[in-house]
Amino acid sequence: MFHSILVSLDGSTLAEQALAPTFSIAAKFAASVLLLRVVVPERTALSQPPLVPSPFMANAEALQRQIVEAQDYLAGLEHARPGVSVHSRVLVGAPPAGIVTTAVDGDIDLIVMSTHGRSGLTRLL
Q1: Are residues 113 and 21 in contact, defined by beta-carbon separation less than 8 angstroms?
Q2: 40: which residues sit within 8 A by CB, 6+ positions away?
Q3: What torsion do the CA atoms of 74, 75, 76, 79 make, to the nearest 10 degrees?
Q4: DSSP string of the chain?
Q5: Which of 1, 12, 38, 114 has the most neighbouring CB atoms within 10 Å?
Q6: Residue range 102-113, pLDDT digits in tens
Q7: What are phi and psi of 90, to 5 degrees?
Q8: What's the CA gap between 2 and 81, in Å, rounded?
Q9: Global pTM?
């Protein structure tokens, strides 16, 4: 039924809770797992004279550091489940677009992710 499963991770413990059910499903269907982390570039203001709107740009050094950290993080999770084919990918950009593009381009059968963990009034708002 499932041949390839995408797990979107943001580095949080909450997001990692999606791994156990993912690996269980993957083992049952002999599916491969793609661990995805989409890095959102930190933006820094360019120096401008006072009262002039400052355009924003991504700090290349900070972005490269984020990418390396994301790659290291995912590499540590790739070996989390022996017997399941696990791969990882790091993208830069908006997470929703990155997840959808990866799913469509990679012929993904199932996307697994955790919620934000909101409940009660914060969930309502």
Answers
A1: no
A2: 92, 93, 94, 95
A3: 110
A4: --SEEEEE--S-HHHHTTHHHHHHHHHHHT-EEEEEEEEPPPEEEPP--TTSPPPEEE-HHHHHHHHHHHHHHHHHHHTSSTTS-EEEEEEES-HHHHHHHHHHHTT-SEEE-------HHHHH-
A5: 38
A6: 999 999 999 999
A7: -120, 130
A8: 17
A9: 0.81
Distance of alpha carbon 30 from its chain centroid, rounded?
Answer: 22
Write down the residue that tokens 């830069």 correspond to. 92
Tens of pLDDT, residue by residue over 20-73, are 999 999 999 999 999 999 999 876 555 555 555 545 556 788 889 999 999 999
The alpha carbons of the chain give a radius of gyration, in whole angstroms, of: 18
Report CA-CA distances (Å) from 100 to 95, 106, 108, 110, 120. Answer: 9, 10, 10, 11, 29
